[in-house]
# Entry
Amino acid sequence: MPVQYLKGVGPARAEKFAKLGVQTAWDLLEYYPRDWAFAPEATRINRLKVGETATVVGLVESTDYQPYRKPAIFEGVLSDDTGICRIMWFHGGYLRGQLQPGQMIMAWGKVGEYRHQLQLTNPKFRVIDIETAGKKKVPDTFFAAAAEYFSGGVYPAGGGISSAQIKKIIRPVLDNLGGLVGEFYDDEFMKETELIGRKDAFGWIHLPPDEGKLGKAKRRLKFDELFLMQLGLALRRHRHSKFASAVAMGYSEEIDRRIRRRFPFLLTEDQDGTIAEIVADMQKSIPMNRLLQGDVGSGKTVVALYATLLAVANRTQVAIMAPTEILANQHFISIERYLRKSDVKRVLITGGLTGKKRDEILGQIKNGQIDIVVGTVALLEKDIEFKKLGLIVIDEQHKFGVHQRAELRKEGTPHCLVMTATPIPRTLAMTVFGDLDVSIIRNSPPGRGAVVTRLVAPEERAKAYEFIRERLRAGKQAYFVYPRITGVEEEGDIKAATDGWRELSKVFGEFKVELLHGRMSSEKKQQVMAEFRKGKIDALVSTVVIEVGVDVSNATIMVVEGADRFGLAQLHQLRGRIGRGADKSFCFLFADKDTENEVAKSRLEMMERSNDGFEIAEHDLKLRGPGELFSTRQHGLPDLKIADIIEDYDLLVMARRCAFELVSADPMLISPLHKNVRQALLIKFGDSLGLADVA
Ligand code: ADP
Ligand code: MG
# Structure
């Protein structure tokens, strides 16, 4: 029902409600208070006790404004048929037009004492609109209603509607919850999980009888919200497994042996483990939808190549995609290294590939002559036709959460493996990525030198430079990363890469210092990168472009300027660029302004303390909250009204288990028992889950 038809709302107010995102009576029910008040039942004045919080109803006998007191006060005397008390407000000048002798008011506040007289200090009040001439006796109806007036929800106001108005409008809706709110669960379940009924929960969240019941209402509504979100994920996954089909890959010891021969090292335990999971997926005709997580350098590419070669062994094609051309190129180079003298046909598609050459290659992809196509994610968008695409590998590095969401519904869905170097906290793994399977590489290949991280104070800069000079002299290489390419006027204190490069070229005059940033041409970038790889460049000054696509084990120094400007995940990522060889590596974080910013400082100290990407990610999530870490729209972060995925983690886990159990028992929610759940899902998600057709 549109809010417009609720009592007290007309077309004009409905428009205001729309600004709050409230269109229907249902939306209004889900427009939860941001705070709650609990005023006690009204008391006669002679029963007031110092120190208690009380609700009283009485007549204003006199008022007085005293602007010269510090602070200025507005005071008065209130009476009923049992006695009198003072009422007083600090900074009360604004009350001059509102409170006058002869008015009857209800007031709620803390009882204190002033010069042996009882006093309500800064009480909340409301003027009662009645003829009071000569009355001292408070009409019973007002006396009874007073507590309720001050109690209940405090709503986020806005768009021209006050909290009090919302409270008034929602009241009759609460008296009639039966028609709006259907129970989701049976009694046994609610008993087991200690959840109260859904109708009570809605009633109490808006008008809680006491704190305890409010707590129970919150818990139930949080659970429901998380449950519906998880149901959405469970249903999406179910649909995917049911309606999409992929090539079921054949697998044998012989294939395994042939693939492993390509790697000049033994795979690590974690690599073997994730490969086993991937192989099990790819043997099924249900398309794999797997996220492979592991720090930079943990050996994901090798795992992805294993999956790639399995698909090729099954005479299907593979598309390997990266977010940038630099990274695509990097993948191609490492694949080339492993596939030397192999018959597997592979190509790199870049923006530079044009004209006849491009047509020729696209033709070969179409007729199946090419096995592996490497490129940027643009491969998905451009209509490159494959003869038989068996597997898609997407390397998202830190820009995860976007591409795998693009559902490939069409017939013959390929298996899909998404790699990310961003450790995803468990809460997000369960929400944003809740419909993906996850494999994790925790331990990197052996033989890696330790990485030491230091936060460098401004006065220690010169010392750090001398330390770096010594390493460069010993033939090691260094990265200097800046938050910006060029300087910005109003933030003159943040150094930009171009300025930094000029300065560092002087400081390290005896070495070759080069600049690299995103606005350089693609050829120039490739060239600089190639020279750095060959060791011809000693120090690379850049923006975060180097986050992706550089793997130089001789580089053992990472300097981050304006480190407080980077997110933890990003810093961890940058640090992953060093420590790739056997030598000890050093990460220096320069943050000139961090002393003022506690959060920034705490983040940087975390970097000093920990090398564990998962630990860092959890910490970051707690510090900054999911909203700031991941833009909701882009990453499909659930839009939650009452639950908090971090604070309510335990409920989230429980809701997830229940939701997945429900979907496996009744995938289309056709049982009459699930009617209400199904209806709530339709309201929440529309028919994107494909439920309506069975309704
Ligand atoms: P990621 O893709 O996770 O960043 P890579 O697969 O590119 O990691 O591996 C990083 C480096 O480690 C590469 O130089 C690779 O050759 C090497 N490497 C990978 N797996 C192993 C292993 N099992 N043993 C030794 N070195 C390995
Ligand atoms: Mg890699």
Observations:
- The chain has 23 helices and 20 strands.
